[in-house]
Amino acid sequence: MRDQLARMILTKVAGPDPQAERDRVHKTPGPRWFTPDSPIQRVHGDASMFAGGLRALLLQSLHPLAMAAVSAHSGYRGDPWGRLQRTSYFLAITTYGAVPDAEAAIARVQSVHERVRGANYRASDPHLLKWVHVAEVDSFLTAHQMYGANPLNAADQDQYVAETAFVAGKLGVIDPPTTVAELRRTLADYQPELRGTTEARQAARFILVHPPVPWAARPAYGVLTAAAVGMLPWWARWPLRLPYLPLTEQTLVRAAGDGLTRTIRWALTSPTLGETDVKV
What we know:
- The two termini are 20 Å apart.
- The radius of gyration is 18 Å and the shape is globular.
- The chain is an all-alpha fold.
- The chain contains 13 helices and no strands.
- Helix 4 runs antiparallel to helix 8.
- It has helices at 2-14, 18-26, 39-44, 49-60, 64-73, 80-96, 99-115, 126-147, 154-171, 180-190, 198-208, 218-230, 246-268.
């Protein structure tokens, strides 16, 4: 049962042959940007990333121009698992992969960004890239501190932000935050630009209410989405028409999210699967 659960999760995250993807990331020889004990590898390899990823999508949707680009070009409704797999691969290869493979992945994303443009947005715009980056990093770090197996101390949290800034700079983000304090200030700086557009609320409904998830997995997915919403800051709730129930979130949601994260972590560390990580 443990192996079946792990393979079900991994095929959704990494595609039909997760073993091949894992070998490509971890076994390709060559230098890496980050060491095995680095905060970025610890955060991105933890099961808390599942709730953190959902939070990131909800938070990112609040920027109207970023959401317009996603709505017009990403195909998230028609191919949500494909988009998840591409995102997961990018995170995995830049966190754990050999440097040439990481640089090739960045070049591919930059090429795609250059083609994604509309009347009032460009996916390659450094300002939009920074918003997507800080929303993602804040979400991954928040989830890790709440649901991670080994939360980071203050120094390691700053190091995590700095390590993600290194990758963001390679991607084209100008002056990304390198400490938690800078990350918080950057998020605050973007708040006047954020609002709950029709596209953002539609994306939230797709993620939370009408996901492409089998009915048997809906209860577990519901726990993940509740955990993701429960980690959103208060100012992000109303624009997306999401509830704010602090007592319930601090008790029932926290306990359920912790239990599910532990279950996912247990499945993905099955001895018969060998060494693995959440992203591939």
